[in-house]
Design brief:
Layout: H1 2-23, E1 34-36, E2 53-55, E3 58-60, E4 64-66, H2 74-90, E5 93-95, H3 100-104, H4 110-118, E6 124-128, H5 134-144, E7 148-153, H6 155-160, H7 171-181, E8 186-190, H8 197-205, E9 210-212, H9 221-228, H10 244-250, E10 260-264, H11 270-278, E11 281-286, H12 288-297, H13 299-319, H14 325-328, E12 333-335, H15 337-345, H16 350-354
Parallel strand pairs: 4-5, 4-11, 5-6, 6-7, 7-8, 8-9, 9-10, 10-11
Antiparallel strand pairs: 1-12, 2-3
Helix pairs in contact: 1-9, 2-4, 2-13, 11-13, 12-13
């Protein structure tokens, strides 16, 4: 029975990669209704731009990272190896996918360990579910000699998955234990359905200091799991959740919450990243874009993609006359279309975003 379950888990990991790759070109971006205003008279040049960032007590050379994707099968071991090589060559951080399979079957540990083997000095994020007991999570951390632990929360995905979890009430206590007993930084991450401000506030009450909003717009795990079902019974959840842009906007009235925000989910360009930084993100996670380039054109093409993103980011900061992530938060940002409707419904003063020098502006 255990062997059969192991095989099913490995098959599911491979299916996730295939379905995520095939769906990438169909994905849009949630940032189109945001317009950031630059200047024609910048006072800085590219050498003045400093894009270092920090979160969870760690420092990073670049404000974006390879977000959690895969691991747990022979095929995905090769992908993790290549992603780790890409991270090493481009000097960005990397998260592995959920390590649950390796915690249930030690033979699969190598599919994750390979990331540290090929990137011995890079920043690597381990990845577990709140379902995983803290003692086992420590094994996941050791597996990678991880610098940070991502805890993914994904009730929508689990409910669509036939073999997924059905009870979630114990997650609160589980997260409390993680905060108390894990001795490396923790990030709680959604897997593509976003977080509203009340969820982020609850996480902060539990002691979570860093949150990856993981918004709708990138890999859609509700759709992926629904496609794996023969009955397609969860078609109605295809559009479930908040986009990354909506999640970021929903936090604009919560400046006193004291939570570090990371943005992922549908981040496709340097411009998307800059808009996320403007709304308070300390870094941006990318998965689908890098996986697509890797599988379509190979590792060197993926490295080139990331190097181009770096160059594009620096150029955008010059056009915004901003030397760093702190200064870019003061650039005017226009909210329109459906995002404006969202702001009005959630009582978010979007006019302040367009006129940051007049923070006391009222409608």
């Amino acid at each position: 029975m255990d062997n059969k379950e192991d095989l099913l888990r490995e098959r599911r990991k491979d299916e996730h990669v295939t379905l995520a790759y095939n769906s990438y070109k169909k994905q849009g971006t949630s940032f189109n209704d945001l317009k950031i205003l630059g200047t024609s008279l910048p006072t800085i040049g590219v050498r003045d731009v400093d894009l270092t960032t920090s979160f969870a007590g760690l420092h990073f050379k670049w404000p974006f990272y390879i977000n959690a994707m895969t691991g747990g099968s022979a095929h995905t071991k090769k992908i993790n190896q290549e992603l780790a090589e890409i991270a090493r060559e481009t000097e960005i951080a990397m998260a592995v996918g959920s390590q649950s399979a390796a915690l249930k079957n030690q033979e699969l540990e190598a599919t994750f360990r390979v990331a540290r083997e090929v990137n011995p000095s890079g920043k690597l994020f381990a990845n577990v579910s709140p379902e995983v007991p803290v003692e086992k999570a420590k094994r996941a951390i050791e597996m990678l000699e991880a610098d940070l632990l991502q805890i993914h929360i994904n009730p929508a995905q689990e409910l669509v998955m036939k073999e997924g979890d059905r009870e979630f009430g114990h997650w609160i206590e589980s997260l409390k234990r993680y905060v108390e007993e894990v001795d490396i930084p923790i990030v709680v991450k959604e897997v593509g359905f976003g977080m509203r401000k009340e969820t982020v506030a609850r996480l902060r009450e539990l002691g979570i200091q860093t949150v990856d909003l993981g918004g709708k717009g990138g890999t859609n795990f509700a759709q992926i799991e629904n496609d794996r079902r023969r009955d397609h019974a969860f078609d109605f959840l295809t559009d479930w959740g908040l986009t990354t842009a909506e999640s970021l906007l929903d936090l604009q009235n919560e400046k006193s919450m004291d939570v570090e925000i990371l943005a992922s989910g549908g981040i496709k360009s340097a411009l998307d990243m800059v808009k996320a930084y403007r709304l308070g993100a300390r870094s941006a996670g990318m998965a689908g874009k890098i996986l697509y380039r890797l599988k379509k054109e190979g590792k060197e093409a993926a490295v080139s993609e990331i190097e181009q993103l770096k160059e594009s980011l620096v150029s955008l900061f010059v056009l915004l006359d901003s030397k760093n992530l702190s200064e870019v938060k003061q650039v005017p940002l226009i909210v329109s279309g459906e995002l404006k409707d969202f702001c009005e419904a959630r009582l978010i003063d979007y006019k302040v975003l367009a006129n940051p020098e007049k923070s006391d502006l009222k409608e």
